[in-house]
Design goal:
Elements lengths: L5 E5 L4 H13 L5 E8 L4 H4 L13 H26 L7 E7 L4 H9 L5 E5 L13 H9 L5 E4 L14
Parallel strand pairs: 1-2, 1-4, 2-3, 4-5
Amino acid sequence: MQTPAKILISLDGSDQSLVVVRYIGRVITPQTRIVLFHVRSQIPESFKDLGVDPSVADEDNLFKIWRDQQEATIDEFLEEARSLLIEAGIPASAVTVKNQPLKTGVARDILAEAHSNYTALVIGRTGVGKFDGIAMGSVASKLVEAISQIPIVVVGEQPESNKILIAVD
């Protein structure tokens, strides 16, 4: 018996991430195992350049308050994404959520996870930091360039088709 596919879906909490989840829910078989993966930052991106150490946060620290709010928001988002897949016919037992703190960088952390026995990586073309006129977000660009051991599926704005285009060289 063949082992079912195991797909890593990287989510950032954006509307585009939900588009990715809905699309995958339409195009994969119910036998596929799915891991919804999120890398969470410990401090706001704008504060990273200031060299702020998030480990010194106490109960009244603004970073702790921000982090707690972010965790609650992403936990709710990941549960919504999981529910969308279950509604699409994927068994609840086949959908896992992995929400990990940032280790080395968002793209590098996703890449490291993708090396953990997955059949494919699925990402949105853009994400939270979307700019009009940009063909692909920075994380997506880094992943497309760096990943070579498994297929990567890049989902665009609002795919209406239930098809997947496979490019080969």
